[in-house]
Design brief:
By secondary structure, the protein is mainly α. The strands form three sheets. It has a two-stranded antiparallel ribbon. It has a two-stranded parallel sheet with strand order 3-4. A two-stranded antiparallel sheet has the order 5-6. Strand 3, helix 8 and strand 4 form a beta-alpha-beta unit. Helix 4 packs across helix 5. The longest helix has 37 residues. It binds arginine. The site of arginine (ARG) has 9 residues, from helix 6.
């Protein structure tokens, strides 16, 4: 059995303080990178063999040893010891223990600095695919629900005040749009991070004849990095990744806020399924949207991770510093949080019903048709500013009489503008108005139908 003490034991005198061991270890966090660490090491060892820095036999020994370690970790048979600090030292020590002297050759021409920069990239590439798959599921859930409400009208709000009528489908598809941008942002992040740091060593590269393109190809990177000092100290992609997670969280939080409001007694627009509600320990009548509230609140964690990540980076001198080790806490926390929130959101969306009867019963409250009436006047040749004034006065009149615009008689309407004719009644009333939207992307039933078709096709290919 080869000795497996830490490789710097000959440099530092005596045993480290227990406090030191506990404080510097990252194994408890980075052990979840083990697969990527091993894949990276196999590629590195293969390249060492190609370059004749180790023999073919040695490569096979190393590869088999690493695969065995990987299987043991996956099966929960592996004993992690924090004295090895991190996943890199843990695996290397285990390899040396298993295959002996040959194991000591694995780290040839490599530093943990280029190793961790590689591991995180490999992990993040996969994690981005997981996040994108979850985004797609959630987008599909919104599209499915939209399909049930492609004709039903609800109030559209600005400033949380009734603004204009919209179809429920358009409202729901607004989240599909937001999530699409989140999807694309993650793709951009993945494209940008997809370069291989291996061969950059601790900071300066190496005097050994490594073939950087070989490891890059084996690991599916699209290129190698071109500045060793930069790449060992670069965590831009971690900040960017967390930012992308933070925006997903923001979008989920705004949606959650909507449905918390919409499920209240005052609104009564949506009914969140009982399976996704909780009750109160004292008030027997309660049906609380706690899951939505927690989605809203967990956004804070993700923002916290983003601020932490940026702060970790901001004052570091060039090259690698141990500060970097703290990156993983935050990339993991951000993606874990967003993953669960998306799972929960998807389940809620798929099981929610809109109370269309209740929404319709109040749909003519709040003068949702006022803007359309002004547009009608524009169609009759009235300048928009003037039309705006006419409708403003009509609304004020209606409020005094406790009436809706459509309840005013033609003469009453004509008192405010001679341009008004009998066809006005086809142009007011929330349901009529929604049907009249003609601009691309508008919130009417025709456009919603087109958007549903578009998304079904688009998302069907994912
Ligand atoms: N655990 C470290 C990290 O996550 C690995 C690199 C340590 N390198 C070093 N020179 N101390 O960043």
């Amino acid at each position: 059995m080869a000795k497996t003490e830490k490789s710097w034991e000959k440099r530092l005198a005596g045993e480290p303080d227990e406090l030191t061991v506990d404080f510097v270890e990252s194994l408890s966090v980075d052990k979840r990178l083990y697969k990527y660490d091993i894949v990276g090491s196999v590629a590195h060892a293969q390249m060492l063999a190609e370059q004749k820095l180790i023999s073919r036999e040695e490569f096979k020994e190393i590869k088999n040893g690493l695969i065995e370690i990987s299987e043991d970790i996956a099966a929960g048979r592996f004993k992690f010891e924090k004295k090895y600090e991190d996943i890199h030292m843990t695996i290397e020590a285990a390899l040396i223990e298993r295959i002996g002297e040959t194991g000591k050759k694995l780290h040839t021409g490599r530093s943990r600095n280029d190793q961790i920069a590689t591991d995180i990239r490999l992990w993040m590439r996969d994690e981005i695919e997981i996040l994108q798959a979850k985004i797609t599921l959630l987008q599909k859930a919104f599209v499915k629900l939209a399909g049930k409400y492609s004709e039903s009208i609800m109030p559209g709000y600005t400033h949380l005040q009734r603004a204009q009528p919209v179809v429920i489908a358009s409202y729901l598809l607004s989240f599909t749009e937001q999530l699409e941008r989140d999807f694309i942002r993650l793709k951009n992040c993945s494209d940008l991070l997809n370069i291989s740091p291996l061969g950059s060593g601790a900071i300066a590269g190496t005097t050994l004849p490594l073939d950087r393109k070989s490891t890059a190809n084996q690991l599916g990177f699209s290129d190698i990095s071109y500045n060793s000092i930069d790449v060992v100290g670069d965590r831009d992609f971690c900040a960017e990744f967390i930012f992308d997670c933070a925006l997903i969280a923001t979008h989920l939080s705004r949606w959650a806020e909507d449905w918390i409001i919409y499920s209240s007694n005052e609104f009564g627009f949506v009914q969140i399924d009982d399976a996704y509600c909780t009750s109160s320990s004292i008030m027997p009548q309660k049906r609380n949207p706690d899951l939505l509230e927690l989605i809203r609140a967990k956004t804070g964690r993700v923002y916290g991770s983003l601020v932490a990540m940026l702060t970790i980076l901001k004052a570091q001198p060039s090259g690698y510093n141990r500060d970097m080790q703290e990156d993983k806490v935050h990339i993991f926390a951000a993606s874990d949080t967003v993953e669960t929130c998306m799972d929960v959101a998807c389940a809620i969306v798929l099981h929610t019903k809109f109370d269309t009867a209740r929404i319709s019963s109040g749909i003519d409250e709040g003068f949702l048709d006022a803007t359309a009436l002004a547009d009608y006047l524009v169609g009759k040749g009235v300048a928009f500013r003037e039309a705006h004034g006419v409708v403003g006065a009509l609304v004020a009149d209606c409020e005094k009489q406790n009436k809706k615009l459509a309840e005013l008689g033609l003469e009453e309407l004509q008192k405010h503008s001679a341009a008004i004719e009998t066809d006005v009644y086809d142009n007011i009333g929330a349901v009529n108005v929604a049907k009249k939207y003609i601009t691309e992307g508008a919130a009417g039933p025709k456009q919603a139908q087109r958007q549903i078709e578009y998304w079904n096709k688009q998302l069907g290919q994912r």
